[in-house]
Here is the input.
Amino acid sequence: MSVIVNEVRGATYFDSIVLMRISRQVAAMAGVEEAGLMLGTPANKDILRDAGILGPDGEAAEAGDLILALRAKDTAAAATAMAVAKRLLDAPRESIASSGLSVTRTIRNAVREMPDANLALISVPGHFAVAEARKALALGLHVMIFSDNVPLAEEAAVKREAQARGLLVMGPDCGTAIIGGAPLAFANVVPRGDVGVIGASGTGIQEVTCLIARGGRGISHAIGTGGRDLRAEVGAITTLMAIDMLDADPATRDVVLISKPPEAAVARRVLARVAQSRKPFTICFLGAADLALPANARAAATLRTAADASIGRTHARAPASPPHAARGKLVRGLFAGGTFCSEAQIVFAQAGLAAASNVPVPGARALAGARDVHVMLDLGDDEFTRGRPHPMIEPAVRDRPIAAALADPAVGVILLDVVLGFGAHHDPAGQLVGVLGKRDSRPLIIASVTGTDADPQPRSAQVQTLVDAGVIVADSNAEAAELAVTAVGGAP
Amino acid sequence: MNLAPSFRGAGEACEPGIRPAIPSRWIPDSQASPGFRNDGEVVIRIRRAGVVAAEFCNTSGDAEVAAVFERSFYLRADDLFVCVGEPAIGNGPLTLLADMRVPMLGLRPGQPARIAGNRIDIGAVTFTCEGWERWHPPAWPRAAAPAVLARVRDDVMRRAAMDAPAEGFGRVIADAGAPRDAFARIARRRLTRLQTWLSMRSVHEPSQTSPVRDVVGTGHGLTPSGDDALIGALALLDALGKRSAHANLARAVDLVPPGLTSPLSHCFLRVAAAGHVGESLHAAVSSIVRGDADAAIAAIGEIGHSSGWDMMAGIVTALDAVTSRNQPVYPSIEVPQSERF
Here is the structure.
């Protein structure tokens, strides 16, 4: 017999998206027949009553109260679901209360409290970031600047200042780093090892470090540089310092360098420095052609080949039975990671297929006015995230474009990335499966999952969730793009 | 240069389950910003203030922190709520914008605040109004021809079917089929009644029984979808210069007793009824009346998770009511006799 349980919270305020996410999660739990999480207004009580989930506690709620109402198949299922719901509602407060972290208001006070700290991670409005970075540098701290919107001239100046002090500035807009095994910001749990990574791209670092980890090797350090370090105005200050550091680091045997193609003069300077090293380098300048590399360096066209090369693996993975799109012949790539979007465009270009994007790589087309072509969207770009969380944090940002692609008969393949790790959503695959739903006729869904089994969201479980829902899961983003090319009749 | 020793404290591998901190907390200190006190207290300058929020700061009295979010917090003084937030949240009549990182302020719900002399004191944090700008939305643009408005309305409905979140009124107005759940069924019925009531503007006077009372407090979110829809409808009527319809709806909203929705949402409703709207809604409605559906949808997309599309549902409902399209939004839905007013 069904059981109705209500929990009422007085004068509690949550973001709407948090309430809806919790409501969806609870409704999807085993044994739960119906669930709702709404303010206790008379109108909402009508709705909950109509849905058959309003109990006496809910009936007594007032307009400003929050009602968590559910109906489950039995008492045990109801109790489990309610416990999960309460935990989700309390999670933010509990995490702060139990973290044991102290809050200080200045970098100087933070250093007083933790005198051994030697790195400051700065995430402030962009126009203040450099001021904070300078304070950290003055205190002898390396700096990782998570903030974006820092003027280019200020970036160059603070990096020169750091260089003079022998300190590293990672960023601005540096989303990922792994230093001495400690993941910083959006990063994954990977084993310590002997491959060093230098990257201008957060998701690029994540993909390469995870592929290396899943290939059986580990990471010594992964150093983020920020997306503009290889611009002429900055002159690769951080990249060159990172090469110095990894070159001198006895724990690092191989180095992978990931970036968009740098300006020619900067590329020459970087490659000249690489040539001085005795260590092997893998250079992945995504989209670059005709690189004149020194003898100790090899080129990698994609993140996957960069990871493979760094661990000495040179095989092409091909599925036993390549998929074919049954309806439509266009591919719609909907990416949370900007670098994945770029990499997919490169794979399509290599296959001779035209693609359009909101962030086109050289050779790809701009989205405006593009018709009847494959489309690769970076949904983490500003135009999609203004006023909203990044899709890596809140995958629901991707729901609407996915729904539109599912409904478009011209779309034969939807290409997706799922990014795990610290900072990412706790169950992106589960959320994605909920959006895909159960449709008799839908495009092929091809996805890659960036992460490891040691991540807070174990990769194997995330992959299984997708596979169970009929999603084709590739080992890497590049392979997913290649499968998409094959599925629409191209040759990767 | 040896990397590992140079990163003191980075040390050993991070154990699974130990989360690194993603910093999102900041507050200016005395070195960065002259004028900041060195006694451990922090002074933050308010950059811009909406009309109602500015009046709030010019009064004297007590308030309390009602809610704290990642980028904003709410102060409550009786039935008035004022939002203090980072610039990215956008301007609004009840909004004070300041350069700050809210989580770093250490605020908590229930904390007392004191407003006096154009400053707000909350514990060790002081907000000052020196040099602030008052924010007012620009005037509404001239409305496009009825045919253009009809086309924009249809474009918006098509996009709502794909883009509006499943939980809100935006999808309710766009879904062509039978209502998928109790919420959609009830929401459709109430929006239809609201539209019919609005279209009868010349003969109907606001009263205690207006369908506005049924729409208020309906739906998900911190501000229920029905409240957002009413705010959208008010803005559209104002923008089109439909004074009588706007006045009737505003009066009906004013007559809504507090217990029908949350205190926070009730405050927003009253301010909207007084003719004040936020920046993104103003941009959306301006785009609608100019005939630019894409710009309207882009602006709506900047308003929360579902609130923007909830407002759009109200905009479309009001547009249908006051233009030649006097049919209910959902002609297939019969309004039971018992629910007719």
Summary: Residues 75-98 of chain A form the longest helix (24 residues). Chain A touches chain B through 83 residues (CB under 8 Å). The first strand of chain A starts at residue 3 and ends at 9.
